[in-house]
Amino acid sequence: MLEVRAASVTYGKVRALAGVSLSVPENGIVTIIGSNGAGKSTTLRAISGLARLSSGEIHFAGERIDNLPADRVVARGIAHVPEGRRIFKDMTVEENLMTGAFLRRDAAGVAKDLEGVYARFPRLAERRRQLAKTMSGGEQQMLAIGRALMARPKLLLMDEPSMGLAPVIVEEIARIVVDIKAQGVPVVLVEQNAQLALELADHAYVLETGSLALEGPARELQRNDHVRAAYLGI
Ligand code: ATP
């Protein structure tokens, strides 16, 4: 469904990605793991049109998308839950959710999906008139995920959804990711928490300083000696 082919991204003189190729099938969870600065966020930003490729191509559902502005990528069906959530702090929960649907013209479908998000995240339903900045970190992460789902995406990109959250909330987020996959939406999951990522994912890519070091079924990478030593602390 998504094909990244030999993608490179440079920021000024910094080469953040150097010829990375990966593919995401129509169902399942693909994870990208790696240490700080390896290029994980840059990969997601390149897919969603927030970072320009200096070379390479990205194809989604049979069409080339690496030349499109970010809003056109959203319109094609790719939603991005960014690192650090980036919710609108001075807007209410419901206003934040509605920004996820800004390109949609099907009011009835939007209303139905809003109820769907509230059913999935009862905490957001209880707090729908509350300002986003008054929510806890876990609630803000759920809001960021809910907002992305309001675009009714065909593919969801998630950047470090577990970051800074208590273990019990991380488990809740993990269940949500699996549930999104079960509903037929493939997920690209970027995580520092490699253990969690490999448990959730079907397929995994390991990025090291902008290049792919390894890839394979997540179950196999969990047993790989390099992955165990470098990322799982075993
Ligand atoms: P982290 O887990 O720390 O977020 P990451 O794997 O997501 O790391 P990226 O954020 O993709 O890594 O960064 C890859 C490289 O690009 C790093 O060396 C980073 O310093 C650099 N970089 C990222 N964004 C910019 C930017 N806007 N301007 C300049 N350099 C950048």
UniProtKB/TrEMBL annotation:
User: In which domain of life is the source organism classified?
Assistant: Bacteria
User: What are the GO BP annotations of this UniProt entry?
Assistant: L-amino acid transport
Q: Name one Pfam family in it.
A: ABC_tran
Name residues in a coiled coil.
none
Keywords for this entry?
Amino-acid transport, ATP-binding, Nucleotide-binding, Transport
ATP-binding as UniProt keyword: yes
For the ABC transporter domain, which residue ranges apply?
A: 2-234
Question: Which InterPro entries does the record associate with it?
Answer: AAA+_ATPase, ABC_transporter-like_ATP-bd, ABC_transporter-like_CS, BCAA_Transport_ATP-bd_LivF, P-loop_NTPase
Has keyword ATP-binding? yes
Any one GO molecular-function label of the UniProt entry: branched-chain amino acid transmembrane transporter activity
User: Which family does the similarity line name?
Assistant: Belongs to the ABC transporter superfamily.
Q: What is this protein called?
A: ABC transporter ATP-binding protein
What is the originating organism of this protein? Pseudaminobacter soli (ex Zhang et al. 2022)
Q: What is the phylogenetic placement of the source species in the record?
A: Bacteria, Pseudomonadati, Pseudomonadota, Alphaproteobacteria, Hyphomicrobiales
